[in-house]
From TrEMBL:
UniProt keywords, alphabetically: ATP-binding, Helicase, Hydrolase, Mitochondrion, Nucleotide-binding, Repeat, RNA-binding, Transferase
Protein name as catalogued: Sulfurtransferase
Predominant location: mitochondrion
Motif (Q motif) on chain: 370-398
Location of the Rhodanese domain: 21-140, 171-285
GO cellular component: mitochondrion
């Protein structure tokens, strides 16, 4: 929005403008009071208001279907409401309220007009109190009726945060959250003005009471003083900002204060503390006085207390009881052995496997393929392979393609960088194209579980590249990113879903997707998922999938925990091992161990970097043990002129994506990382 329209206008300006001939100003009284004050804003309007003003009812101009107070209405409802108030597209709307503070609810109306696309709106500085104090006339009675106007509204969704956005932000810290409630309510020591709601605050939020921005006269403080208040509280006005309060009323006053400082892209959490307290997990309700203000015997209104979430992720998912006779049948064997493969003798097969270090365990494993055309993939798959200039399948692909295309369950133990992603995705595409089309409400046909966001994103890119020619849709579901776009993808219908276990559990519990249609399950980097503690979530997810599915498990190691998972999830499976079971690193990597004292490490690192970076195209990853060490080493190297960037678990997802993009492109050829980048990410030209 433009900053050309003043957010605040004075009593003098409004008086002179209203007297001017042909004035296009429309004055609205947007007074609203907290429920426990028992004041009727509409009755007080009839008793006294600014001449020619109309009453803007915040409670009526809202989403009436929501149990929360004055949530934003749909755009057509707001347009009709504004039209009946006589607001035209070219009207300059001036809003005020009658709070003793000078402003309280009028900034909410100011923000609503702006968020629905009407930029020409201002708040009367000081409100009705300032108007009367300066001796201006008031009138009583009902507002004048206006002829409906042609007013249109379009919601700017970027300025509205949902509960899901705030949940994501607790982890990702993509934007700052400022709470406008009084300090006692924020800390949890003073009661909330609504029944059934205890005080407290959102994790990571910053408290600046809305009254901080107002002088004792009720006027807004000058911009330089407003900036100082934000800075003192630790708010960076150069970064994204979201404001909240009890029900998104005084939050808009904070948004106006930021606007006065030049920050005109502030978003508002529309549900506010009312929604957060009702929906958030108990550990996400931060309070110094936990339980102090709760009615002793439930709700003081006689209703039940607000619902709260307890237990572990997936506790609300029940293990399904499957009757295979009632399930729709599906095909999973699509393999036709190529004539060239048929001609291979047992000696040829064993010789090929020996040269490629392929070990097979289990009965009925098909012969390996030695070229892509022998797998007899559809032409749309072959076209992409040729375009990407792949010459021949890797070892895991040579044995994995025929096995996966045969519909068999399998375990693949392969070194990092072995090409396993294509080994399961290309057969998945063939599998999907032989199943009935998705119908409305169906979940994915292929589910890939991955341990990290980065690996999930990389797999999704491959799925997109190979699936787009046959119109196979895929999405990536992971934490640390907004839920909204991911939910929309799932609701539209996707054949392939690549997910981290935690986020998928959230969506399954919330009913945002289901696994009724899933017949092809992939567990990628199963050993790492177990190391990260995902076993309970994995078991909950697999319980939601029909037992006659095809399951492919991939791992770099083969400890007893992974073996047990395979025994529980796979049926009559074949195990393919590339190289020795004890090794998981790529044999093509030269490893040099330099034993040195702790105080020698930094100097040796710099010497090594000077040798490596002498060649222009080289890229280097430096792994460190802790996030603190990661940040410290990055700062030190950048200070010394090295083009280094870092990623670790505390970095937001957008920042991690950006750093990886800069590294891959060579703009920042030195990446310092914790184990978040240790496996599953494809980098080229590494030294």
């Amino acid at each position: 929005m433009s900053l050309q329209t003043k957010a605040l206008v004075s009593v003098r300006w409004l008086t002179e403008t209203l007297r001017a001939p042909g004035s296009n100003v429309r004055v609205l009284d947007a007074s609203w009071f907290l429920p426990k004050l028992r004041r009727n804003a509409k009755s007080e309007f009839r008793a006294r208001h600014i001449p020619r003003a109309s009453f803007f009812d915040l409670d009526r101009c809202s989403d009436r279907s929501s149990p929360l107070d004055h949530m934003l209405p749909p755009a057509p409802v707001f347009a009709e409401f504004a039209s009946r108030l006589g607001v035209c597209p070219d009207s300059h709307v001036v809003v005020y309220d009658r709070s003793e503070h000078g402003a309280f609810s009028s900034p909410r109306a100011w923000w609503m007009f702006r968020v629905f696309g009407h930029a020409s709106v201002s708040v009367l500085d000081g409100g009705l109190e300032a108007w009367i104090r300066e001796g201006q006339p008031v009138e009583e009675g009902k507002a004048l009726k206006h002829e409906p106007t042609e007013f249109t509204a379009k919601l700017n969704r970027a300025w509205v945060k949902t509960y899901e956005d705030i949940v994501d932000n607790v982890e990702s810290k993509t934007f700052q959250v400022v709470d406008a409630r009084p300090a006692g309510r924020f800390r949890g020591t003073d009661p909330e003005p609504r029944d059934n709601t205890e005080p407290g605050h959102i994790p990571g939020s910053i408290n600046i009471p809305f009254t901080s921005f107002l002088a004792s006269s009720g006027l807004f403080l000058p911009p330089d003083q407003l900036k100082a208040i934000f800075q003192k509280a630790g708010v960076d006005l150069q970064k994204p900002l979201c404001v909240t309060c009890g029900s998104a009323v005084t939050a808009c006053l904070t948004a106006l204060a930021a606007y006065q400082c030049g920050h005109d892209e502030v978003s508002v959490y529309d549900g506010g503390w009312m929604e957060w307290y009702t929906r958030a997990a108990p550990e996400d309700v931060i309070s110094e006085g936990r339980g102090k203000h709760r009615p002793r015997f439930g709700s003081s209104r006689g209703g039940p207390p607000p619902p709260k979430k307890f237990g572990n992720p997936g506790d609300r998912l029940r293990k399904k009881k499957w009757d295979l006779d009632e399930l729709p049948k599906f095909e999973k064997n699509f393999y036709n052995e190529h004539l060239e493969v048929q001609r291979m003798t047992q000696y040829d097969v064993e010789d090929f496997r020996r040269k490629k270090e392929i070990t097979v365990r289990g009965s009925g494993c098909p012969k390996p393929v030695t070229n892509f055309h022998q797998a007899q993939f559809p032409q749309y798959v072959m076209d992409v392979l040729l375009h990407q200039n792949f010459k021949e399948p890797t070892a895991i692909q040579a044995q994995g393609f025929p096995l996966a295309l045969s519909g068999r369950d399998m375990v693949g133990i392969a070194q990092t960088g072995s090409g396993k992603t294509l080994a399961y995705l290309l057969p998945a595409i063939v599998h999907i194209n032989h199943q009935p089309y998705l119908e409305r409400g169906d979940g994915p046909i292929c589910l890939v579980l991955a341990p990290t966001r980065e690996l999930a994103q990389q797999v999704q890119q491959v799925a997109y590249d190979y699936g787009k020619s046959s119109r196979i849709k895929s999405t990536c579901v992971y934490g640390g990113a907004p839920k909204g776009p991911q939910i929309r993808d799932l609701e539209r219908g996707v054949e392939i879903c690549i997910a981290t276990p935690g986020r998928l559990i959230d969506f399954l519990e919330a009913g945002k997707t289901n696994l009724r249609r899933c017949t092809y399950l992939v567990l990628d980097e199963a050993d790492r998922m177990l190391d990260m503690g995902f076993e309970p979530q994995i078991r909950k997810i697999v319980d939601q999938i029909r037992p006659d599915r095809q399951t492919l498990m991939w791992s770099a190691t083969w400890p007893k925990e992974v073996r047990q998972l395979a025994e529980d999830f796979l049926r009559e499976y074949v195990q393919i091992n590339i190289g020795a079971l004890e090794l998981s690193a790529n044999h093509n990597i030269l490893q040099i161990v330099d034993v040195c004292m702790e105080n020698e490490k930094d100097n040796k690192l710099i010497q090594l970097m000077e040798e490596i970076m002498a060649e222009k195209e080289n890229k280097t990853i430096i792994f460190v043990e802790t996030k603190k060490r990661c940040d410290e080493l990055t700062r030190r190297m950048r200070r010394d002129g090295w083009p280094a960037m870092c990623i670790h678990g505390d970095k937001s997802q957008p920042e991690r994506d950006w750093v990886l993009t800069e590294f891959r492109s060579g703009k920042a050829p030195i990446l310092i990382a914790t184990d978040v980048a240790s496996r599953g990410l494809g980098f080229f030209e590494l030294h």
